[in-house]
Each structure stands twice: as C-alpha cells, then as structure tokens.
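[audit] Reproducing an earlier prediction to check determinism. Same input, same settings, fresh worker. If the tokens differ from the archived copy the diff job will pick it up downstream; this log only records the rerun itself.
[audit] input (103 residues):
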Amino acid sequence: MKDFFISMLEKLGMAFWIEISTEVPRCVYYFGPFLSRSEAGQAKPGFEEDLSEEGALGITSVVFQRPTPDILTIELDEYSTTQVTNGVLGIEVKTADLSRKSS
C-alpha cells in the first residue's frame, strides 16, 4: 500500500527527495522517493554516512518535495551550473558529455 501512495505522489511531483551535495567529488545526489519529510529525514544520515565512507567531503543535504529528478547523480565538473532555486539545481548540459551520459 505504501508503494501505491509513493507512486501517486511521484506522479503528482509531490514525493519527498533527499538532495545531497558534496564538494569532493563535486556532485549532487538524489535519493528517494519518500512518502513523508520525516521518512526522508530518518534515511538521510545513512546516505550521508555511505558517501562519507566512500571518501566524499563537504557533504550538505536537504529534504524537499519535488518531481522525480531526471538524473539521480550529477557530476558537476561535467555540467555548467546555471542556477539553484528552492533546492532545484538548474543545469546546462554540455553537448559533448550528453552522448557519454546516455545509457
């Protein structure tokens, strides 16, 4: 039943997601979807710990409602950041990198 509710929230763009940014490597990661802010908040420390154990530095995170991200892991060195508004990263994809990223 929980999966049904999460699926509905996703379709409406109202599911909760964790966005974790790291300075090293320069990445943005999305984890989700979650049914509630509380559920995402409880899961957040585990994702932060995993990234830290993998050697990531400068970890910051936020939980918010958003549509399903098109890309779950964004390597910022391969993109030009255009803006960050309300936790949503606007990116401009470099054409040369697009062919390499599609799979």
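[audit] rerun output stored. Observation attached for the diff report: The helical segments are 2-12, 37-53, 95-101.
[audit] end
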